[in-house]
Amino acid sequence: MFSPIRFSVGNVELLDQRKLPAAEEWMRCESTEQVAVAIEDMVVRGAPAIGCTAALGMLVDLEKLSWKTWREFKATFATNIERMRCTRPTAVNLFFALNKMVEVAAKFADESSCDEVRTILRQTAEAIFWDDQRTCMAIGEHGADLFSKPVRILTHCNAGALATAGYGTALGVIRSLHKRGLAKHVFADETRPWLQGARLTVWELLQEKISCSLNCEGAAAFLMANGEIDAVITGADRIAANGDTANKVGTLGVAIAAKHFAIPFYIAAPFSTFDLKASSAKDIPIEYRAESEVLEFRGARHTPMGLKAVNPSFDITTSNLIAGIITERGVIKAPYSANIAAAFKGHS
Fold this sequence. Notes:
Elements: E1 5-8, E2 11-15, E3 26-29, H1 32-40, H2 47-64, H3 70-85, H4 92-105, H5 114-144, E4 151-155, H6 170-179, E5 183-189, H7 196-207, E6 212-215, H8 220-225, E7 231-234, E8 238-240, E9 245-248, H9 251-260, E10 265-268, E11 274-275, H10 292-295, E12 296-297, E13 300-301, E14 314-317, E15 324-327, E16 330-332, H11 336-346
Parallel strand pairs: 4-5, 4-7, 5-6, 7-10, 8-11, 10-15
Antiparallel strand pairs: 1-2, 2-3, 8-9, 9-14, 12-13, 15-16
């Protein structure tokens, strides 16, 4: 299965998604700090992929530096955890993965050998990675079960193999539909300002010969009005306990249009994307990125000098706009507060 993340002892390699589709280049990270910077700089993106990368990145210093006991390394580990937590504030999978690593690390006595610590933490990080692949495949199957005839799907941003450990969430559903002969056509929003749809989503779809076309995200409502869209499926970066969902900015507008035209709007995401400590949208932090991402494209200025820009990386789609949340354990539907709570209680 294709994955944008490769790892071995002492390093993590990431497919540089800033360079796609023009070039397929891998960045080799040989320190935890290099992994953190790669996450910040969008070398890797997508909530599940960020979480997997962060967990694997926590191993790099531990495996390369000559510590003998856990006591010697513990302070560095804590510093690296906090550094990694600061990379991307909205994607909750990052914190899910880091918390797993912290929970395991807390079980070691100070005199534990670093060899023992390395082994167990590596097993933990690798489990997060492989579990994500299995999770995405399950999401794909549950999502495909929603449809019994060929469908035309609109998706926003990139929630494919590139955004996960492999297979994808929203594109995982589309892949599973394609295998069943039910993916009639996929419309991909270009997704400003990083053009994840134009550069990444259609690249993935073309690799697998899935019928697709690219559209300006401003054209999504027009396509719906013309009867060209049967369903919308996107990924998510954080889902609150009431079903309010943070995803790439622009998702809210698509969801509002879908509601207006009575087109089902689905979120596809693993349980690790839920944040039950967030009661609603008001508890979800929204990352604002550099103005230059809007004012420039790949370093070339295309706007008037002196102009200011606003650049929220995410927006919130409230639960009343969502027809269902497709997870690895099935599809959760309204009423979301009760059904999300029940889903977690049943699989605690």
